[in-house]
Amino acid sequence: MKAIRRLTVRPVLPDPLRPLSDLARNLRWSWHPETRDLFQSVDPECWTASGRDPVRLLGTVPPARLAELAEDRRFLRRLTAVADDLDHYMSGDRWYQAQPGRLPAAVAYFSPEFGITAALPQYSGGLGILAGDHLKAASDLGVPLVGVGLLYRHGYFRQSLSRDGWQQEHYPVLDPHELPLAPLKERDGTPAHVALALPGGRELRARIWLAQVGRVPLLLLDSDVEENDPGERGVTDRLYGGGSEHRLLQEMLLGIGGVRAVRTYCRLTGHPTPEVFHTNEGHAGFLGLERIAELCDEGLEFGAALEAVRAGTVFTTHTPVPAGIDRFDRELVARHFGPDSELPRIDVERVLRLGMETYPGGEPNLFNMAVMGLRLAQRANGVSLLHGGVSRGMFAGLWPGFDAEEVPITSVTNGVHAPTWVAPEVFRLGARHIGVQRAEDALAVGGSDRWDSVADIPDEDIWQLRRTLRAQLVEEVRERLRASWRQRGAGTAELGWIDDALDPDVLTIGFARRVPSYKRLTLMLRDRERLTELLLHPERPIQIVVAGKAHPADDGGKRLVQELVRFADDPRVRHRIVFLPDYGMAMAQKLYPGCDIWLNNPLRPLEACGTSGMKAALNGCLNLSVLDGWWDEWYQPDFGWAIPTADGVGTDPDRRDAIEANALYDLLEQRITPRFYERGASGLPDRWLEMVRRTLSLLGPKVLAGRMVREYVERLYAPAAEAHRAMDPDSARGLAEWKARVRAAWPGVSVDHVETSAATAAAELGATLGLRVRVKLGELAPEDVEVQAVSGRVDSEDRITDAAKVPLKPVGGPDLEGRWVYEGPLALDRTGPFGYTVRVLPAHRLLASGVETGLVAVPSGDLVEAAGLLMR
User: Fold this and answer.
1) Which residues form the DUF3417 domain (predicted)?
2) 166-180, 417-431, 849-863: which has the minimum mean pLDDT?
3) Distance of CA 303 to the CA centre of its chain
4) pLDDT digit string (tens) for 706-733?
């Protein structure tokens, strides 16, 4: 019989065990081994059956066992120690509190997904895992972050396989009352809500749920409430599901509703009001509109409110391709804003202008969420050095007249939260050599002095650790294989081979990620015979563990999964290559430590960062990857291998795949497998172990989320907070009026004449030239602009590279025609072909950079010819 209603019955814990509830509700347990060990000791069988979820565990432990534990003095001492440790963690000063200067009182961090733990499945892939790691690292460092997202009642899909290897999706219903969440409540005890106005007088309401991620509160908005009509109840049904309007409503709820949720949380709890708002990808971009509306309600005009909002906003882009950005039809967006919908006090045309692709190559009828994110943020970044460059090129149209390298998008390379991803066995080995506290600090904060101690760990200990982790992975794989084959309809008689699947002494390669075409899941299958020879080599075999989900609407991705599964089903090789369905955090935490090699072969430069290889590296796994994302930035032959790329302009995709697949096979055959199986005088693979050691000591401090969050604080959050404080209402009005005046007057600005003291087209290194420039400023004054000399080495097309910019100073007043003379020295500090030019930029103390406005005046072509701006 089927129940007509579902309830969650919570256990009543005996008084001595009440701290267990607090420990279960704070997700710090997901990265704190002592807390997990305590819960496991409550009831080991229930712990395993609950999926290692403390909330579910406490709901299934028999009352008799709870009564027994309430009398167990040894258990109660452990409980007190763990609870005291959490209290100290929550209240004590950490890295952030020890920093000089006035840092932000709080930062609001918005993301469409968060991967905190498998017990709270609100993520699909790397973006969500990165967001979860950002929150955890912020908690460890004491950064006063408030996370904001959506609560998806089905999460992302669960994946299984049909008999013939086709991906199948399942969407289990998630009951918030069975998750590590608590409803945010008003002071009268009623659930806290936010509401959005919809066309036609309708309303979208959402309840606010709170997940406590260590010190960081995470607010999740849930539209599945009785006050909503069925259509509105389904807005937060699943991650990245539905059509355009469904996605638009999700993103309006995330951005606009999210700001309202933050305001509600701060009002109810006394949490400091955020000074900085961080938009993690364009999905949350509407948060800027809500904040503009708030300021307009306080009396600011739209332009001034826009400047005030921009000052305190940080935007992070994660996609290296335009196809990865959400874009909506202009009319759809217009229908949801304006007098009878949301934000009625803002002219809908102003809303639309923020997201329209009004630049060469753009589609003027589409509303681009990333474009809006950039226009609403004074500071923006990509997620690796290479991706920052790709992003500057992709969005250069928003700053016409500037070279791509000057586009104001910097980069902060992603990191991973080591306490989440480092296997307990790895941590214990490190702690034995440097102590528990120093090991914890090394993982959370970093510092090369702590990581250098890896050099003192004996080879025997490292090799034994690696084999132990490999053996654990083999057992995990066999268990998951049995479950998968049973789901596919196999009987017990067909599963005997699984007992011999994989070998704990064979070189193990991992490949696990989402399955869009650019990640090339099946590149390894390019030459199947050659791969088979590698798998079955009599002396130096390899084995491969593969996992990944294709988007439910991506049949091309599903075909790639099926192709891989069918190859792995072949009885000749199925003990050496396996595909594990339903890739998620729980699987990943076993997979990364157990692999010897982490394989990554995307089409360069389409991998923005790719953090899975970082997690593997922290466990002593070596990377084998195309030079893309973070690997392009930090690769050294000391600790991994680079797959050569064939990315020349004339190389067609099929030939490119063939060349790079052959390079992959060559590396495995000629360099990687010999090194793994080669034994030194000690009977151990000395050269391999040296690479493991260097991976841990050299890469370890770099790939930490703690390093990443520190960079965000120092390079983006602190300057944004300072700009936010400087942008009081009068300053915001002044800047908006100044920008409007400068834009109106800019057509009258020009470079009229350039002359130099150089007598010839050659000069000696270290010499200084005198530069004299005459400019027309029209209705502007010298204090409105900066006249710059831009110089540097030039390429074969006379483009200046690695440019140096030096401001020139005005000399005297304007002449009768309103022209101003600027002068300054030009240092010849580089040998070889050297060039210079001059330009005029708007200048104001509240601009983050001279590039911000997108306005520039440069010499005309005729003037360049006359001035002789090139020296060789």
Assistant:
1) 13-120
2) 849-863
3) 31
4) 999 999 999 999 999 999 999 999 999 9
Closest CA to 258 of 288, 299, 228: 288
Report the alpha-carbon distance of residue 70 to residue 700 in Å, rounded: 42
pLDDT at 491 over 50: yes
Q: How far is CA 1 from CA 4, 658, in A?
A: 9, 57
Residue 335, number of CB atoms within 10 A of its CB: 17
**Residue 809: exposed, middle, or buried by beta-carbon count in 10 A (0-12, 13-18, 19+)?**
exposed
Q: Mean of the per-residue pLDDT values for the chain?
A: 93
Q: Which amino acid is at 574?
A: R
Q: What is the mean pLDDT of residues 431-456?
A: 80
282 neighbors 372 (Cβ within 8 angstroms): yes
Residue 869 pLDDT more than 50? Answer: no
Taking only the tens place, the pLDDT of each residue in 518-538 is 999 999 999 999 999 999 999
**Strand residue runs (E) in 151-235:** 158-161, 167-170, 182-183, 193-197, 203-213, 216-222
How many residues are present in the chain?
Answer: 872
Q: Which residues contact 339 (CB under 8 A, 6 or more apart)?
A: none
Tokens describing residue 50: 């609950």
H or E element in which residue 509 lies: strand 507-512
Whether this prediction's pTM lies above 0.85 is answered by yes
Angle between helices 287-297 and 302-311 (to 10 degrees): 130
Whether the CA torsion 310, 316, 319, 325 is positive or negative: it is: negative
pLDDT at site 254: 98
End-to-end alpha carbon distance in the chain: 88
Strand 114-115 relative to strand 121-122, pairing: antiparallel
Q: Cis omega before residue 54 (within 30°)?
A: no
Is the per-residue pLDDT at 592 higher than 80? yes
To 5 degrees, how large is the angle CA 275–CA 25–CA 214?
40
Distance between CA atoms of residues 807 and 824, nearest Å? 8
Does 458 score more than 70 pLDDT?
A: yes
In the predicted model, what is the mean pLDDT of residues 408-419?
Answer: 97
- More confident call, 834 vs 380: 380
Euclidean distance between CA atoms 745 and 750, whole angstroms: 11
Contact 481, 578 (CB under 8 A): yes
Are 491 and 478 a contacting pair, CB within 8 Å? no
The two tokens of residue 36 are 């997990």
Pick the closest to residue 164 from 521, 727, 567 (CA basis).
567
Nearest-CA neighbor of 292 among 278, 314, 310, 279? Answer: 310
Q: Tell me, rounded to whole angstroms, the distance of Cα 543 from its chain centroid.
A: 30
Of 256-265, 426-435, 661-670, least confident by mean pLDDT is: 426-435
User: Is the alpha carbon torsion for 294, 300, 305, 311 positive or negative?
Assistant: negative
Residue type, 485: W
**DSSP 8-state class, residue 669:** I
Distance CA 236, CA 223 (A): 6
pLDDT at residue 834 greater than cutoff 90? no
Output 194-199 pairs: Cβ under 8 A, ≥24 positions apart. Answer: 194/221, 194/257, 194/260, 194/261, 194/264, 195/257, 196/252, 196/253, 196/256, 196/257, 196/342, 197/340, 197/341, 197/342, 197/344, 198/232, 198/249, 198/336, 198/341, 198/342, 199/335, 199/336, 199/340, 199/341
Rounded Cα–Cα distance for residues 611 and 390 (Å): 18
Residue 689: phi, psi to the nearest 5?
Answer: -65, -30
Residue with tokens 């013939």: 164
Distances (CA, A) of 498 to 202, 502, 507, 538, 577: 56, 9, 18, 20, 12
Position 799 scores a pLDDT of 85
